[in-house]
Write a structure and sequence with these properties.
With 548 residues, this protein is an alpha/beta fold. It has 17 helices and 22 strands. The model has no long low-confidence stretch (mean pLDDT 97). The structure holds 1-deoxynojirimycin.
Length: 548
Amino acid sequence: MNDSLFSKVVYQIYPKSFKDSNGDGFGDLSGILEKLPYLKKLGVDILWLNPIYVSPQNDNGYDIADYRAIDPRFGTMGDFEELARQAKAMGMGIMLDMVLNHTSTEHEWFQKALAGDKRYQAYYYIRDPKADGSLPTNWQSKFGGPAWQPFGDTGKYYMNLYDKTQADLDWHNPEVRKELYDVVNFWREKGASGFRFDVINVIGKDELLVDSVNDQQEKSLYTDTPIVHDYLQELNQNSFGQDPNIVTVGEMSSTTIENCILYTRPDRHELSMTFSFHHLKVDYKDGDKWQNQAMDFAELKRILNDWQVGMDQGGGCNAVFWNNHDQPRALTRFTNDGSYRVESAKMLAQTIHMMKGVPYIYMGEEIGMTDPGFTSMDQYKDIESINAYQMLLERGLSEAEALEVIQVKSRDNSRTPIQWNDQAYAGFSTSQPWLEVASNYPEINVEKELAQGTIFPYYQELIRLRKELPIIQEGSYQPLLVDHPQVLAYKRQLGDQELLVFNNFYDQATTVSLENTNYNYLLGNYGEREASNQLELRPYETIAFLSR
Ligand code: NOJ
């Protein structure tokens, strides 16, 4: 056993949907506290909580109105301190979500700016229109529409790369940076032992803003700019970097391997690891999320392999994951969540958990939760889905066609409440939850999984193996069978030890050739197998072998 970064496993909790302790239909901190023994049993080290601060919840807490207070819907500061204390006593740390690229327009800074306070106006990107009266730049918000909104009745505009109630902060202003370092330090004192930095690679916009020529080039104007590294080094030095035990992860939008190496190489003193998302865009048609298309498996393999090899060779650290609160569930999206639900869930888990990096489990993954399959737009709550639906209608799709896209792509797919048991509201709450529970909860729920399921124990085993085997933590990564149309396979190597992992992503059996069969079975989803020259992989089969 050791305590290196690569030995850790993170569990992501979307607090709104994890467990409601007071019957208001909204998950809360006391609900998380109640379930700590469950998380301990799973064996995870760090609990990442999505934002829990005071917020109008237009973007589910990513629109923060007060960085230093808990939203009463989630509980009190006392609840947070108790949660951090009890988690620590059980050997788990709390990772908080820091949304430092923007604030809610309800934040005091923005309100003061609106009231005319020049000091706070300098906290945001507030600009005059162009001479011809058009918006300061032609940039688009990532949630649809222009990236500029009228700044009160001043005739000026403020920048919003996300929702119009999320105003981008101007990091060029040293006072802004100092405020944000203080926020991180405030939560360190309250007991946080990790931080996830929301869209942190877009904080380096230029002071002088110019029009873009196309979508791709537009992103390059504000993404991964060199100054982001300077800001992260300064943030590190002035806050979490003072404590070597703190674990950090940066969410990197449209990023590159080169930049993620720089963000995470220990000697750079920026972050512990990064999230990148290219592997979750392999079912976008021509790069457009809002058109359904089957996944491009060759592309999925290429991206995962490139990131594994690149980050390993560059000395960086990947956060490895399939799911989060912004993604439909991979089980529904990439595999078969019906007749092969159990096999698929284990195969996806093993693919990631035996890779190099730090695995993230998104709540519900450990029991094989699926997308809910909502049938009406009224069931969706996410602002991005609602905007996208309108946009699809404007593109000329019928209501039914637009719904079909939302059903597959909506972020609400992963945000439905955790299915704890087969009682009313799946045991999540005693009243109607803020977002409907998936209707398969009588079949798929924690109580049933713990009594007779095999996915949860599989996750326990993967976590245990990571802690036990240095090769999973530190071994180099080499892609195998790169041209195989169904199988993602790789070799990990540490000294003269080898770990082979084969994952069949399809419901057709297939065969792979093994030159050397001098391996012992380690773990698989169809039980014990022998390494043979012609190894048959059954539907969604995963097998790992360790050299003798
Ligand atoms: C990324 C978060 O994960 C997402 O949920 C949020 O909408 C955007 N950042 C904006 O904060």
